[in-house]
Amino acid sequence: MKIDGACHCGTITIEGEADPDKTQICHCTDCQTGTGSAFRVSVPVSGATFRMTGEPATYLKTTADSGNPRLQAFCPRCGSPIYSTTPGDGVQQSYTVRVGILRQRERFQPKKQNWFRSALPWVTSLGGITSNEKQG
Ligand SMILES: [Zn+2]
Ligand SMILES: [Zn+2]
């Protein structure tokens, strides 16, 4: 399906095509650090359909858990994570886009959880925590 989205401050916008069934959670410790949160939710977007306005800041990180170097892209102004991809010049084959920046994020329900061995112990019991419809 068609997707579009933007970082928190609007400097970076993206669009492309993504399959909601490919939505994944990553609980690895690098994703916890890189998001500043408990886990990362991402979906692949093919390079052939991926379009972006604005210039993200990037850094190359070889994650301790997988051993693969990944180029991490984020907004240089607001810090929102945008995507990760393979290192190299030009258009890459696939961009792993962060679901939280998508306007259609509700349609992207994760189908798989990776690196669950480092998942924070409370993530499977969110339903048991006091829930407020708005700020509590
Ligand atoms: Zn931004
Ligand atoms: Zn990860």
Keywords:
single chain; 136 residues; mainly beta; 7-stranded mixed sheet; 1 helix; 10 strands; 5% helix; globular; binds zinc ion
In short:
Helix content is 5%, strand content 35%. It has 136 residues and is mainly beta. A hairpin with an 8-residue loop joins strand 8 (81-85) and strand 9 (94-98).
3D architecture notes:
The chain starts with a strand and ends in a 22-residue tail after the last strand. The strands form two sheets. A seven-stranded mixed β-sheet has the order 6-7-8-9-4-3-10. Strands 1-2-5 form a three-stranded antiparallel β-sheet, with no helix packed on it. It is 5% helix and 35% strand. It is mostly beta strands. It binds zinc ion (ZN) (2 copies). One zinc ion (ZN) binds next to helix 1.
Overall number of strands: 10
Strand order of the largest sheet: 6-7-8-9-4-3-10
Structural class: mainly beta
With helices defined by DSSP (H or I, 4 residues minimum), what is the helix count? 1
Globally, the shape reads globular
What Rg do the Cα atoms give? 15 Å
Unreliable sequence segments: none
Quaternary organization: single chain
Topology:
Layout (H helix, E strand, L loop, with lengths): L1 E5 L6 E5 L6 E3 L2 H7 L4 E7 L4 E3 L3 E6 L6 E6 L6 E5 L8 E5 L13 E3 L22
Bound molecules: zinc ion (ZN) (2 copies).
The site of one zinc ion (ZN) has 6 residues, from helix 1.
